[in-house]
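Each field is set out as follows.
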Amino acid sequence: MSGIRIDKWLWHARFHKTRALAQAAAVKGHIRLNGRRIEKASAEVRIGDRLTVPRGNGVVVVRVLGCGIRRGPATEAQALYEILPDDMLDPKAPAP
């Protein structure tokens, strides 16, 4: 099963307005992939992976449902992920 670069996926899923902002978030270590901190924009995301992404004043945990082939409308972007309940967050884990 092939994946997609995390910066591209974050941009396709509309978590960031530009791919450059998505790259910066990944390089700064603000994103977690399956519980592990990511520091490379080239990290590969696959269907079924769990991402922890900063959003607003908090974080959101999502499960990847699709890789996407373009940055489409919001409805298309929302089909790429499922927001997981807050109890999926590990309270002992450091903030991203």
Summary: The chain has a mean pLDDT of 89. Strands lie at 4-5, 31-33, 36-38, 44-45, 50-55, 58-64, 81-83. The chain has one domain: 4-87. The first strand starts at residue 4 and ends at 5.
